[in-house]
UniProtKB/TrEMBL annotation, chains A, B:
Species per Swiss-Prot/TrEMBL record: Sutterella faecalis
Taxonomy of the source species: Bacteria, Pseudomonadati, Pseudomonadota, Betaproteobacteria, Burkholderiales
Keyword Lyase on entry: yes
Any Pfam family the entry gives: D-ser_dehydrat
Protein name: DSD1 family PLP-dependent enzyme
Coiled coil region boundaries: none
Length: 407, 407
């Protein structure tokens, strides 16, 4: 075992041609320019803006604050366009995001993943920067751990109790005894800031009516939880709900103070299958290059595999299975009336088969042809890229850093 | 649109608590130490060494050179332990890997993804560093593009013709006319260095006998292609085959000069289902923390979701479906005789259900308990981490950088 030298020559050169800063040289180039590397993650600026405005408008119509979930893009540039003020409010999914957005001036955040006791020291460190970072938990055990930490360290950490409205994942049932016990267990610097839920089962809805019902279930559940806490004498300033489907289709958020949503900044094929977006709304895509063909199978081989597109196959259980994504031309227009999907991927290869009756032929795609793939799921697709390229009319207008990792 | 400020305050602090260099402070800590963040990617040093030695031994027994595929770990420290010399030979899947390993002294590499013409400038730039980086292609069109590039730039690029032995993905059929045409189309600085194939369909085999047959098909196909080229007057110095299943089970590599393999450095649940490895051989795992429980559903919630474990569900079509991974204790021992899997994930949440007849109860997992998850597929799981932690007897003995991205 040689520990020496492992990191000795770590440098931008050894790590890549482009870091987010050197990639600024891509601004002004067409997505068809050979200097633009593939695979790259593209964001259509006009679609992004329309999506951001739609979410803000929905929140305004519903009369609640909008606390966007920044996990989809993890970029301060997009966050600033998405949030109602440069200081927030916002939602994050990792402490890495919390630290990054804090360093970029965001001051009101909820870290919306149940807290582990070991992470409290880092939460306190970020809060000491003057950031109101709130945490969530869903048990007496966790409430005691946070209270113990705050007492031992003489610090304050605001806590939202996570509520389970649909059996999706985490949270306390609105009617359970432990809800009140957990609130009581918040002592010393661990203060109850509110309640929070996520109607995650809205992702499984088969109709808009079902999403509307999920939204009402989300609202009713959290309002019930808040009501029981208030009846027991607790103040509950924040009543937070959210998922992209319920934000888009909720009829009322009476009793709710704020709504969170993430993927609606980009949308994707999963959301399109769900009826929450249209294909034309999808702002994020992967730029790829044709690197080969298999004539006997009528197949093209692309340089975008599952690292570039993620292994997400969420559309496999929906009304249309898009494989690993919908194939478009370099301008983002679906090929052959949207009939062509990326059916297979290996780590760095994508494979698409032209339908036998397609108007397109393999010869229409010379080696080096650039295509765009609309992804099944925006969040895991965007995450591994070193930077994201903001595009307008086929020209790169900005290069966006985004944060990654967990610590 | 505000382009300014996007990258202005990009700094280690804004990007995370630990970069690969600052994470060196984790060396010497137990994986149970709260300072070790979760999720983290762990590599068991002894299992890694055994796996590396097994692959080298197999290649030696088969009488061929070993050219490991570095895409699984993308780490120079592991590459140096894996390669037969510090200078190679090696295989890479991105130009980012090629540049990184070149900067770290590796001099003999094959970039084993069909070349796109736009990438030739970067190939030439890396070769100009004194590195023998070879490329692959599978068409006359690509051969002409490389020849044109070499002529225009007065440079040399060695080329291997990719051969398709099993209809898996890319490549020229050993018996096709285009094989000889492509060789003839290599002109000027574009020189034929050999032939290369990957028996990717060996991943779909249902028995060891089927893998043995796939290995023989791989060998026979490439030898046939090399023979036809030689009969036509071409020199074919490199005859390269490889996949982890065929390396492990091949009976003969007569006529082959080298073998490539990647995932056999770590192994994973997919390879275990295939019969190529045992659970005890799996060297890579994800360290996670219990952050909640759902008593009515007998579920634990972990802080490792699909970004930490990848969306890879390859085991879903195999003899045992492991969900998103096999759950082990912090020492890496499968819980409850290997019966507990991570059945569900969201972006940052993992969900496991204890079987009703399990010897384990939710109370055995207090908040903050650390667990390890063996992944379905090592390569996409390891890729997104900022660094990987090398572990021996539960103690972190090294922090490994690895390269990411494509450009």
């Amino acid at each position: 075992m040689n520990n020496c030298g492992a990191l000795a020559i770590l440098s931008p050169e050894s790590l890549g041609k482009f870091a987010p800063d050197t990639a600024q040289s891509l601004i002004g180039l067409s997505v068809n320019d050979p200097r633009v590397p593939t695979p790259s993650f593209l964001i259509e600026d006009e679609k992004l803006e329309k999506n951001l405005e739609r979410a803000r408008t929905r929140a305004r119509e519903l009369g609640v604050a909008f606390r966007p979930h920044l996990k989809t893009h993890k970029s301060i540039v997009i966050a600033r366009r998405q949030m109602t003020s440069p200081e927030g409010p916002a939602t994050v999914s990792t402490l890495s995001e919390a630290r990054y957005f804090a360093a970029n001036g965001v001051k009101d955040m909820i870290y919306a993943v149940g807290i582990a006791p070991q992470k409290l020291a880092e939460v306190a460190r970020i809060r000491a920067l003057g950031v109101d970072l709130k945490i969530i938990l869903d048990s007496v055990e966790a409430a005691k751990a946070v209270s113990d930490f705050c007492r031992e360290h003489g610090t304050e950490i605001p806590v939202l109790l996570e509520i389970d409205v649909d059996g999706h994942r985490s949270g306390l049932a609105p009617e359970c005894d432990e809800l009140l016990q957990a609130a009581k267990a918040l002592q010393d610097g661990a203060g109850l800031a509110g309640v929070l839920t996520h109607a995650g089962d809205s992702y499984e809805c088969k109709s808009i009516e079902a999403i509307i019902a999920a939204a009402e279930g989300e609202r009713a559940g959290i309002v019930k939880a808040a009501g029981r806490l208030r009846a027991a004498g607790f103040e509950v300033p924040i009543v937070s709900v959210g998922s992209s489907p319920t934000l888009m289709h909720s009829k009322s958020e009476s009793g709710v103070t704020e709504i969170r949503a993430g993927v609606c900044a980009f949308f994707d094929l999963f959301m399109t299958n769900l009826g929450v977006s249209k294909k034309e709304d999808i702002a994020g895509s992967v730029l790829a290059t044709v690197i080969g063909r298999q004539t006997t199978k009528n197949q093209l081989i692309l340089d975008s595999g599952f690292l570039a597109l993620s292994r997400d196959r969420g559309t496999a259980r929906q009304k249309r299975d898009y494989g690993y994504g919908l194939v478009c031309d370099a301008a983002g227009e679906p090929l052959d009336d949207g009939r062509i999907i990326l059916a297979g991927t290996n780590q760095e290869h994508g494979i698409l088969t032209l339908p036998g009756d397609s108007s397109l032929k393999l010869e229409d795609f010379p080696l080096g042809t650039r295509l765009r793939i609309l992804p099944n799921h925006a969040c895991p697709t965007a995450a591994p890229y070193k930077y994201m390229l903001l595009v307008r009319n086929g020209i790169i207008i900005d290069v966006l850093e985004h944060v990654r990792g967990w610590d």
